[in-house]
Amino acid sequence: MSDTNEKIRAVVLTALMVLSVFAGTIAFTGTAAAAATGLANGSAANVPADTASVSQSVSFDVTVANDTSDTINVTYPVGTITGISDLSSSDSSNVTVSQTEVQDSYVRVDVTDTGVPDSGDNTVTVSMNVEHDLTGVDPQGPLTVNIDSETNTQSTTADFSVSGGRIIADGGSVYLGEEDVDLTALPGVDAGSAATFTGESGDADGSTASIGDGVQADITEANNFQQGGYDSPGGTGDTDRELFVIEPRVTDLTLYSGPDTDGADITDESIISGTNNLTVEADWNFDDAESVEVTVEDEDGLEVQSQLGSTPITIANSGGSVTLEGVEELDTGEYTVTVEGADDLDGASRSATFTIRDEAQSVSLDQSSVTQGDNVVATVTGTPGEYGLVRVEGGDLDDLDATDASAEDAFADTGDVVALVGTDDLAGDQDEDYVGAVVDLDDEAEAQVRIQTNALDTTTVDVEFVELDAPNTDDSTLQTGFNSSADDSAELTVEEQSINITSAPSVVRIGEEFTIEGTAAESDDVKAYARIDQNYVPLVDEDDDFSEDDVDSDGEFSVEIDSSSEISLPDSYRIAIVADPVDDDGTDYLTAANQDDEISSDVYSEFDTKATTTVRTVEGDLTAELSSTSIAADVGDEITLSGSALGQGDSVRVYLIGPRGNFLDASGGEGSLEQIDVDEEEFEEDYAAFDNRGQYTFIIVGQGRDGDYAFEPNGDGSGLIDSDLTPQQAVAIVNDEYTGAGVDDQIIELTVQAENPSLTIDDFTTDGQVAQGEVTISGTSNREDETTVFIEVLGEDNNVIASDEAEVNGSTGEWSTTIDMSDVETGTYTLRADDDEASASLEFELAETVSTPTEEPTPTEEPTEEPTDEPTEEPTEAPSTEEPTDEPTETSTSTPGFGVVVALVALVAAALVAVRRD
Fold first, then answer.
1. What CATH number should be reported for the domain whose range is 362-495?
2. How far apart are CA 199 and CA 203, in angstroms?
């Protein structure tokens, strides 16, 4: 039995050993089949549509068992795969990756664990760039890349889009107007989804913009994009903007004559007919988004670039250029070259012109007729790189010989001038005596020279141009140029200098300063003289400076003249304005030594440029008035002194003498005189010096026609003050100083009476009654102008029933206002008026109505019809009509029979009159 158990035990042990070996074999085989135990985090970048060569970054995470390998398939739905590059893993020590196969739609990558002992499974990130040919692939997405294990069921995916335009990285820039750009690299922006951006800087600050699809975003004004920085929907909101919008601009455009940029710069210039090539160079700020396209239009606005090369004509990179060929086939005229964005950004553009001209040699003047002394610019055109000669005949020079020295007078050594020369200094004989300027035509085939006409006669001068045969300035070349016929010429008319008076008064008040204005083209200075007897006397202004002026660059002048100097006697004067007054002997009357010299009529006739006008001088006038003839004393009230001072200078003198004989200033302090400025011939000053009752006297003094006062006070303004003067003495002293023989000062005396403050109310009642309604209240006051009068209607308890305000009219001493008492109950009231210094009151009865007495016709007409010798006054003693009007309301309330009594009384009276007549 035991043997049997041992046999059974041996069999079982053997079976277990066999099974364990088999199980180990199965386990080993299973590990090899499951090399990639995990795939995750697939990622693929977006790619642009319809692009022949695109490199797309792709990555994924793979977990590999120790000492195993697997093949990973990366499969695409669109385009053609042309290869992979930059294949790597994040852990090159334990795991290696290698490319095994590249097909049109997929790539295979081997991933191998190197079998480091006890390392276990390894997870690494595999990265690579997949190269695509996306020619003909339209924008679409999102699309899915399938990433799976060839030996296992592990897989992951990566989404990407085929974008219609540029792909913008986080913090990148786009251009306003750009469309179909891919913004999915920005936080919070997804393909196929709308997104809103917040403006944080520039013009965009504080605004929002939106897009409909993150992979095909339109950066347009229609979507409210503006120039500036934006935060994307998933941005952090810090100072780092995720997107910048830039205004696209073509920053520079240059045109060159010839096949490259080494030629002459002819931007907005001209080339001669027959020029073969023209090169266009441009710079723009949206180089990373678009190229630019070149168009050429003729004067009719028709595009001609198809005649100049294959179209469209583009420049690929900013700073680059393109050469237009066949320019010689274009007609003469002006052409406009425009460079603009080639696609979405065609609103960014820049234009320049060039002109094709017929003749190779020409001369033109910026002015054809000038005043002698004006500068004229001559522009000549010829062959690029050559020299030219601009010349005028020696006979057209103003008393100058045709020498190098006179050439320097006729032409300015500026700009394109390389030499100034006259024929008298050249070896050999010339057909004509000329002076000329040699100019460098340079690459632009154009040059300019300034002609100085003060060296030319006042006549019509031919300005001639000759292109020299050789690019040098030796004597033989210049002699040939002077002897050659002109290639082109232009006429220049030089006119004599002139002076014109454009503005001058015909009548001037003596003492005023007046102005004479005019033009004196090409003159430097002008000076004013007055003819007195047979001489011309220099005039001065009010500062005693000579009446002269520098002529402005536009030829205008303005001379100030004081009429109280040499022309202070009332009369008509001939005023002469002389430009650059120099006589035949060379005496300059603007220099300090000769400036104040009188000149005779003979010397005056030697002046080349002069003009005259007639001015009549008349006596000036002084007026003055006070705003009131009375004023309240000792309350600070003011009176205004005003007037006009015609021909009295810039100010008038004012003396104020108080009722105690003292001299006062405007505020009441001690003083002697005050100067009041005259502005536009008027003056005005407020005085508040009335502290005492009595009469105040104002004495106003103008300086008269001689421009001076008869009396000059001390430096502190004093000089007439004396103690213990009566007002009459003080007034007499002032008048004595400014009157008398030979004195023409004008003087005015005004008085004002200072009184205690007073206020009155005009009786506005009818026999003490006033009807309910609007009532006009008025009165008088000696207070200053615009003093406020407070009006109150007081009841029996002095409570205020109604109130209003009025203002004093200082010139009339009156005040007035209207109070509405429609809603005030009938009764007895007091009207009180108060101006804080004086008051008045009036009691009245307020009634519903007040009847105004009306006069009945008196029976005086009937007696006058009867012949009588007795006085006509007697019939007027008949019963008066006033009795019933005294109490008008009694007639309506009389008792029956009262009328009969009245009638009887009237009858008895009539009988008595009749008896008396008998």
1. 2.60.40.10
2. 8
In the predicted model, what is the mean pLDDT of residues 670-684? 86
| Residue 859 binned pLDDT confidence (cut-offs 50, 70, 90) | low
Residue for token pair 């066999």: 18
- What are 891's two structure tokens? 């007639």
- Can you read off the two tokens belonging to residue 566? 């040499």
Cis peptide before 659 (omega within 30 of 0): no
Q: How far apart are the C-alpha atoms of 251 and 255, rounded to whole Å?
A: 14
Query: What is the pLDDT averaged over residues 118-132?
Result: 88
Report whether the peptide linkage leading into residue 727 is cis, meaning its omega lies within 30 degrees of zero: no
Dihedral sign computed on CA atoms, order 540, 545, 546, 549: negative
Q: Whole-number mean pLDDT of the chain?
A: 84
State which amino acid sits at residue 115.
Answer: G
Looking at residue 843, its amino acid is E
Q: Which long-range contacts (CB under 8 A, 24 or more apart) does 100-105 make?
A: 100/71, 104/80, 105/75, 105/76, 105/77, 105/80, 105/81
Strand arrangement, sheet containing 800-807: 769-771, 839-847, 827-834, 788-794, 800-807
pLDDT tens digit sequence for 716-743:
555 666 567 888 988 988 888 888 777 8
Contact residues for 480 (Cβ-Cβ < 8 A; gap 6+): 468, 469
Class (C level, CATH) for 508-618: mainly beta
Distance CA 254, CA 279 (A): 8
Asked if the domains at 362-495 and 759-847 fall in one CATH topology, the answer is: yes
CA angle 910, 914, 918 (to 5 degrees): 170
Cα–chain center distance at 877: 89
- Rounded to whole angstroms, how far apart are CA atoms 256 and 242? 41
- How far apart, in whole angstroms, are the C-alpha atoms of residue 909 and residue 918? 14
DSSP 8-state assignment for residue 238: S
Query: And the tokens for 818?
Result: 């209207």
Give tens-digit pLDDT for 463-498.
999 998 766 667 888 888 888 889 999 999 998 888
Residue with tokens 């990622």: 43
pLDDT at residue 264, rounded to an integer: 77
What mean pLDDT is predicted for residues 97-115? 90
CA dist 706 and 398 (Å) reads 48
Residues 605, 584: Cα–Cα separation, whole Å = 10
Distance CA(516)–CA(538), nearest Å, equals 14
Q: Does domain 621-755 have CATH number 2.60.40.1930?
A: yes
pLDDT digits (tens, 9 = 90+) for 806-850: 999 988 999 999 999 999 999 999 999 999 999 999 999 999 988
Question: From CA 701, how far away is CA 711, in angstroms rounded?
Answer: 11
Nearest-5° Cα angle at 44, 39 to 50: 145
CA–CA gap between residue 574 and residue 506 (Å, rounded): 11
Question: Parallel, antiparallel, or unpaired: how do β-strands 525-532 and 535-538 relate?
Answer: antiparallel
What residue ranges do the domains of the chain occupy? 34-163, 172-246, 250-357, 362-495, 508-618, 621-755, 759-847, 876-917
What's the mean pLDDT in 82-97? 87
**Other CB atoms closer than 10 Å to residue 884's CB: what's the count?**
14
Whether the CB-CB separation of 557 and 521 falls below 8 Å is answered with: no
For 295, the 3-state DSSP assignment is strand
The least confident of 1-10, 87-96, 99-108 is: 1-10
- Domain 250-357 class, CATH top level: mainly beta
Burial class of residue 436 in the structure, from the number of CB atoms within 10 Å of its CB (0-12 exposed, 13-18 middle, 19+ buried): buried
Q: Cα dihedral sign for 723, 727, 728, 730?
A: positive
Rounded to the nearest 5 degrees, what angle is found at the Cα of 633, between the Cα atoms of 631 and 636? 90
The CATH architecture annotation of domain 34-163 reads Sandwich (2.60)
Q: Residue 558: name the closest of 515, 595, 529 by CA.
A: 515
Fold of 759-847: Immunoglobulin-like (2.60.40)
| CA proximity to 234, closest of 181, 208, 196 | 196
